[in-house]
Amino acid sequence: xxxxxxxxxxxxxxxxxxxxxxxxxxxxxxxxxxxxxxxxxxxxxxxxxxxxxxxxxxxxxxxxxxxxxxxxxxxxxxxxxxxxxxxxxxxxxxxxxxxxxxxxxxxxxxxxxxxxxxxxxxxxxxxxxxxxxxxxxxxxxxxxxxxxxxxxxxxxxxxxxxxxxxxxxxxxxxxxxxxxxxxxxxxxxxxxxxxxxxxxxxxxxxxxxxxxxxxxxxxxxxxxxxxxxxxxxxxxxxxxxxxxxxxxxxxxxxxxxxxxxxxxxxxxxxxxxxxxxxxxxxxxxxxxxxxxxxxxxxxxx
Length: 301
Prior knowledge:
This protein is of the alpha+beta class and 301 residues long. The protein has nine helices and ten strands. 39% of the residues lie in helices and 14% in strands. The strands form three sheets. A five-stranded antiparallel sheet has the order 1-2-3-5-4, sandwiched between helices. A three-stranded antiparallel sheet has the order 6-8-9. It is globular and about 60 Å long.
């Protein structure tokens, strides 16, 4: 199977049940239920009441299986919120060609759809989590293809970003957008590499009773530049919550500038149709506007 090819069959509960029955027969009687909101990289199912099963949707996501199994147990004791607890690794089988994983189930609803009682409190809790992650001994894997260069240099996506700006033309303020992007590229990393999650997004943050309760999907985790984990400040938080998020993270202005760059890249490639994620056009245009406004505010400080 070519490196970028997705699994041609259907990753459904029936497939998961067959895999469990053949490789973990002691769990064969447990019900398998798909989770309501599926991600891009993996398909996730609930196994019984206390476990989850995750299957990579394409070969390029397979590296996350071994990585999570190895590193999450080392990270978990140092973090203030629960993260997935690996339990077992499954092998290819039943015509499914990739390794897959079984982990503990974490209760909560994705923040993307969950009612958040106080976004400022939510942002502060997330900042506490990331600050704790940054303090862990950075003895993990460096950024690379396995993390889709999260934690790496923003310049990796320079060509794609400029192409998106050109494609969008009059749909955005191209001059201001380019200025924000150039400023992000010019802000060099000053500190030492730290652990990063790699995909801090509302779909990977669980909430219970209106509060942040767990952080999931560490498939892009690595040791590198923490700026990639800041994009949520513009893609999900309003100005007040963004201020609370920033107050809880002791990061320099350059890191926040690169964080704007990560958020801008993602919004632009979605708007320009360069991403498989086709979230609402109005949402992405609003994000671009928010990033430009925040950049202008930063220049007046």
